[in-house]
Each structure stands twice: as structure tokens, then as C-alpha cells.
Amino acid sequence: MKIIKVKDNVEGGKVAFDIIKEEMLKGNVKTLGLATGSTPETLYQEMVKSDLDFSDLNSVNLDEYVGLEASNDQSYDYFMRKHLFDAKPFKNNYLPNGVAENGAKECARYDQVIADNPIDIQILGIGENAHIGFNEPGSSFEGTTAEVQLTESTIEANSRNFAKKEDVPTRAYSMGIKSIMQAKKIVLLAYGAKKAQAILDTVNGEITEDVPASALQNHPDVTIIVDEEAAKML
Ligand code: GLP
Fold first, then answer.
1. Which one is catalytic: 117, 129, 135, 158?
2. 63, 64, 77, 120: which is the annotated catalytic residue?
3. What is the pLDDT of residue 59?
4. Ligand 1 mutation target, pool 80, 124, 131, 189, most atoms within 8 A of CB
5. What is the mean pLDDT of each run of 10 residues along the chain (234 residues)?
6. In which pathway does it act (predicted)?
């Protein structure tokens, strides 16, 4: 794992953007794996203000809340359009459909999307409990797309974006850890003291399904971009 320490999320966004840009200019990127949450927002700002053209690229997102329409302003579909896709059109933007009628079929459909669009660079945030996508502690490293139950701590952490905690969906569709690990290159971003323990466990801890992001120790090309607070336990 390559660790890059940055001053703050603004510098982190620029560093992550430079990695994407370099790979794009080398012709190495057909599909970007994208993430939501507040962490990648500064990266998306860099992408939006850049002169890069993404219209030949596909994007595949990690996850979506079950039960939210794409038009709901709390959906990850909405988030991606607001922060990136409205300003920078891609060829195709893939996300799980939060209101699919049949969950099992939706997971199978999304696995096919991932198989048809092998991810060249996967952007990741990390939960305070070291979840990636919505793969909570205990998720199998062999997992593919699944409908998952969110933990109480994730619901609590994500409730800051909702009017009240009861509004936070309790389930989500998430790309599995096995699929994330198939990305050629992975860039994980983490900012703030709340992520320090998760970063320590991810980088220096035991590789265990209790720490979903620890799977990344087994990946040949992972860059972790952390600010001082998130890196303080390393
Ligand atoms: C959600 C997302 C994750 C994200 C995490 C952290 O649970 N499913 O992909 O990494 O939140 O969010 P934030 O970046 O806002 O701290």
C-alpha cells in the first residue's frame, strides 16, 4: 500500500485527481469506479473544473440506498449527478437501482454491469468502522453485489445528511469486496480524526473480515490518501 499524507481534503482531492488524470492520459482508463459520501467531494470538484473529457468513459458506483428513487435528493444517484455527472458527462453512469422490484435480480444485473465494465481505477471512502462501499464488518471478502443491512453506527454517521435519523434507509445495495478487489487500481481517501482508527486497522491491522478495508492489503495497487488527522495513529 502506498500512503500519501496531505494537509487537508482540498490537497487530497488534487492528489487523487492527478492520479486519475495521469492514468487517463496514458490511455489506461475506460471505466472509473466512483464513491459517494463527503470524502470524494473535493476530488469531484477537481474533475469538474478540469479540462478533462470523460465522455468516452463509463462510471460504476459502489452502492445505493434501498428504497430511494434516483430523483430523491438523498439518493447516491442524485449525489453523483449534483457533484459530477451534470457538469461532466460520461458515456454511461451505472449505479444500483434503489427501487428495483426484485433485489436478487438487481444484484445479478449489477454484477453483470461490473463484469461488462472492468474497473480501471476505483475511488473509495471509508466508514468509521472501516466499511468500504456498504460492506459492513463481517462481510465476506468473496462477496459480490448484495442487498445489505446497515449497522447502527453507519446509520448514525450517515444521519447527518438527513433531516432525522429515522429517514436514513436501513438497507442498501453494495458492490461486494471481491468486485472492489478486481479493480486494477484503488485510491482510498480518508480525512479527519474519526477515520484514524479505521485507517490504522486497514493499513497495519490483521487482514480480517471484521475490518472490511483490511482486504486491501492483499491488492497489488492501492494508494491511500490521508490527512494528518486520519493518519495520526499510523
Ligand atoms: C457511506 C458510503 C461509503 C463512504 C462512507 C463514508 O457509508 N457508502 O462509500 O465511504 O459513507 O462517508 P463520508 O465520506 O461522508 O465520511
1. 129
2. 63
3. 98
4. 131
5. 98 98 98 97 98 98 98 97 98 98 98 98 98 97 97 93 94 98 98 98 98 98 98 98
6. Amino-sugar metabolism; N-acetylneuraminate degradation; D-fructose 6-phosphate from N-acetylneuraminate: step 5/5
Exactly one of 46, 77, 136, 227 is catalytic; name it. 136
Model pLDDT, residue 156: 95
Ligand 1 close to Cβ of residue 38 (< 6 A): yes
State the distance from the centre of ligand 1 to the C-alpha of 12, rounded, in angstroms: 16
* CATH for 2-231 (3.40.50.1360, 3.10.20.600, 3.30.300.20, 3.30.1280.10): 3.40.50.1360
Ordered by start, the domain boundaries in the chain are: 2-231
Long-range Cβ contact pairs of 3-8 (< 8 A, separation 24 or more): 3/203, 3/223, 3/224, 3/226, 3/231, 3/234, 4/223, 4/224, 4/225, 4/226, 5/226, 5/227, 5/228, 5/231, 6/225, 6/226, 6/227, 7/227, 7/228, 8/191, 8/227
